[in-house]
Design brief:
single chain; 219 residues; alpha+beta; hypothetical protein yedk fold; 8-stranded mixed sheet; 5 helices; 16% helix; 38% strand
Length: 219
Amino acid sequence: MSRLFTVASSIPEIASHFGAEARADLTLPTETVEGLPATVVFEKNGRRLLRQMDWGFPRLTREMRERGEPPGRIGLVADLTNPLWEHLVVQPQYRCLIPLTHFANPNGDAGSKTRSWFSVADRPLLAWAGFCRNVPDYGPLFAGMTMTANAAVEPYNDRMPALLEPDDYARWLGGSIKDVIGFQFGAPIAASRMAVLHSDDLWRSGDLPAGLRPQMSLL
């Protein structure tokens, strides 16, 4: 899937939906790409908490090291057996819920791609299955698990976020690795529930969907 999502909601609404506690000074980014912060829900000592974390774990290949490049970011978990994830995904304490209302995919020809936004018509606030951890020199980071795209998303990308139903939140946060595998390889959310909003905004423009801008200005 692409590496862009947004949350057209508010901190109190997110906290209420997930039954989570939020600090009074917590802010909500208007959009998130890899390397930038987002608001994430995680559990600690039986309490759900909201915290801002950066999207993407550091990744430094031998080739990057030889070229003197800094570590890149990888924020999508597609292969649970990858050495980068194999220990992280097993332990429930490293699970999190990533609130979002829309995720985007590029649409059109190279050099002039625009943003097409995807949401779920009957759910104003979504939860993306994620993993999080404190990493030395980077602080708290998160990544989102992907799955095979449904028919609404597949023309734009063959992967999409692993979206959870509210009844699945507790099982995701506390379940076994078999549960994690089940969520990734289960059926995606039905394409008939998806809403697709095409925009004229260039992929790298930094603009939200036009329909969201008035709402975001009120938050």
